[in-house]
Specification:
β24 (about 495-505), α18 and β25 form a beta-alpha-beta unit. This protein has about 625 residues and is α/β, with parallel strands linked by helices. The strands form eight sheets. The chain has a four-stranded mixed β-sheet with strand order 2-1-10-9, with helices on both faces. Strands 4-3-5-6 form a four-stranded parallel β-sheet, sandwiched between helices.
Length: about 625
């Protein structure tokens, strides 16, 4: 792939040299092969779409919105944009009667000239488009009505490695869409990083269920197989969520070697796959089980490995990794042949941004799973976010990244691009670096993630990582949904106070004992983190705000709490009218808190924190 400068070059090469090889197969319900694409078919369809786009949009580099349900149409549309010389803007079609505000924000920010979709999606959005002049003003094309044989008149765009391939819109914690500018050069370099880190070969086989409009689904499950010239079997995220067995069944059926997803996916499999289903699986071919996009839990890895070991799954296949849209996708990952690196540190020291390994069993010990090392010529630096100088190996700092995989910036946001993508070390002026906003440390080249810079909760001068509190909360009572909670701080009477928001399992909604759940949450958080909970909000199943990639939007949760707009099934706060009902509970928690405060008073008075501001 060293001779290619764009992904057009790669597809054109595959269409000539591997013309009849099946590139992608879609499993309509996660089980049945409904449609497939060879490399030659993919190129022909892409060229036909490009002809229609070039006929309607005359400005090179124009942005084209992609709105598709899960399936192979998204892939042909994506390459149709590239073959037309336009910039793809992947998004997800809004559900019927869903607000169009996010889609409007993306269209406005990207200044899209056209949109590609299917006839069924266009029909379902018709009434919404009529009411939205901004969306109805752009050219809409249903690609299922385009004849793939109508390719005459296609003009080969003059693309280079610096040409933008697509805008990856990421909402982040604020919910405001920002378009990350990803070039062909970014893509090719990152795909080479993944190939080397995962030790992929021409014998690699992919199975994936991640959303294709998201970076991990698009770059990981669609473009990496094309880069390698190997088959990929895809299903919709809904097919997996409804029946997690389908994912592992596909890996077993097609003897896939690479597949993965966020941490919650592995937990879901452990909870929902039955012994009868488990007995039918053969996972011995699976040698790269990547785990990324959210904190990797050591206990999740242990439970999954123990559960599926009888199916041939090997614990060393786990591949914790780290990345983000701003780095195209991949930043770090481990050695394929080595098991995940697990590091135990003192929780109290971590709250002061110090890395102190635990000796023996300690009550406040925190277990962190490493996310591997850097690859190729990319550099990772751990930087004090205030002084902008390098941290020592025993300090937690902000993760900065530099390399050809770092994207070009945010579309039409020069100020934010300057702040995020053009950081320099204050003392040496080394740079530019991307400021990830994530906190972590390096130990012998291994990267450990401890949290988000903006999400850190600071109460009484101490750092508390929300994901730690959220894990404590979800384990405090069986009615709470794993991976569906948020912890954040609000200012009450000039003091930062802790609020916990958590979804309730659907099976517990009709018999929910709010008092018991709240009590268990408060006691667990006080015991594990020496914190008093100011308020607890229990939410309806599936209603907590999340990003398109499934990450909890803590900022949106906080806003919803303050506005009273969350979908609440039960709540409590220290200032609520129902305080009397919880007086006994509050007294017990207060007593425990006072005991802890007495033992920690002298220690707390000495604590300082460079993140306090």
């Amino acid at each position: 792939m060293d001779n290619f400068s764009t992904f057009l070059d790669i597809l054109q090469y595959r269409a000539i040299h591997q013309s009849e090889q099946i590139a992608y197969t879609f499993l309509i319900n996660g089980e049945t092969e409904s449609v497939s694409l060879t490399y030659q078919e993919l190129e022909r369809k892409a060229q036909a779409i490009a002809v229609q786009l070039q006929d309607r949009v005359k400005v090179p580099g124009s942005r084209v919105l992609l709105l598709f349900p899960p399936g192979l149409d998204f892939i042909t549309a994506f390459f149709g944009c590239l073959y037309a010389g336009f910039v793809a803007v992947p998004a997800y079609p809004p559900r019927r009667n869903q607000k169009m505000s996010r889609l409007q924000a993306i269209v406005s920010d990207a200044q899209t000239s056209a949109a590609l979709t299917t006839t069924s999606e266009l029909t379902s959005m018709e009434s919404q488009l009529v009411r939205n002049p901004q969306l109805s003003a752009i050219h809409w094309l249903a690609i299922d009505k385009i004849d793939s044989d109508c390719r005459s008149g296609w003009q080969d765009p003059t693309a280079s490695s610096d040409t933008l391939a697509f805008l990856q819109y990421t909402s982040g914690s604020t919910g405001t869409p920002k378009g990350v500018m990803v070039s062909h050069g970014n893509l090719l370099h990152n795909e080479q990083m993944v190939k080397i880190a995962y030790q992929h070969t021409e014998k690699t086989i992919f199975v994936g269920w991640l959303p294709l409009f998201h970076d991990m689904g698009l770059i990981g499950n669609v473009l990496q197989p094309l880069y390698l010239g190997i088959p990929c079997f895809l299903m919709s995220p809904v097919a997996f969520i409804q029946k997690p067995f389908r994912w592992l069944q596909a890996i077993s059926r097609y003897q896939a070697t690479t597949s993965g997803g966020p941490n919650f996916a592995y937990d879901l499999c452990v909870r929902q796959i039955t012994p009868e289903q488990l007995a039918s699986l053969d996972l011995s071919s699976w040698d790269v089980a990547f785990n990324g996009a959210e904190p990797v839990r050591a206990d999740t890895l242990e439970r999954f490995a123990a559960t599926f070991e009888p199916c041939g799954f090997r614990a060393r296949a786990f591949y914790p990794c780290y990345g983000m849209a701003e780095t195209t996708l991949f930043v770090s990952g481990g050695l394929k042949t080595a098991p995940p690196v697990v590091y135990c540190v003192e929780g109290a020291a971590l709250e002061q941004n110090r890395v102190v390994a635990t000796v023996g069993k300690q009550e406040d010990a925190r277990t962190i799973v490493g996310c591997g090392q850097t690859w190729l010529d990319q550099k990772i630096a751990i930087v004090n976010p205030e002084s902008l100088t390098l941290c020592s190996a025993s300090q937690v700092g902000e993760i900065w990244v530099s390399g050809p995989n770092v994207a070009h910036g945010y579309w039409n946001r020069p100020s934010e691009t300057e702040q995020t993508f053009n950081a320099y070390l204050a003392d040496t002026r080394e740079g530019p670096f991307l400021r990830t906003g994530d906190l972590g440390f390096l130990q012998d080249g291994e990267l450990f993630i401890t949290g988000r810079l903006k999400d850190v909760i600071i109460i009484r001068g101490r750092n508390h990582y929300p994901q730690d509190i959220e894990l404590t909360v979800e384990q405090s009572h069986p009615a709470l949904r794993p991976g569906c909670g948020a912890a954040f701080a609000v200012e009450i009477d000039d003091q930062e106070r802790l609020v916990v928001v958590a979804e309730v399992e659907r099976s517990h909604l009709h018999k929910l004992d709010v008092n018991k759940v709240v009590g268990d949450i408060c006691q667990a958080v006080t015991h594990q983190h020496e914190l008093q909970v100011y308020a607890v909000v229990l939410l309806k199943t599936g209603s907590i705000p999340k990003t398109s990639s499934g990450k909890i939007q803590r900022h949106a949760c906080r806003t919803g709490f303050l506005k009273g707009s969350l979908n609440v099934v039960g709540d409590w706060s220290q200032d609520s009218q129902n305080k009397v009902k919880f007086l006994q509970l509050h007294t017990e928690v207060e007593s425990l808190w006072q005991q802890l405060q007495t033992s920690k008073q002298s220690e707390l008075s000495k604590e300082t924190n460079f993140l306090a501001n």
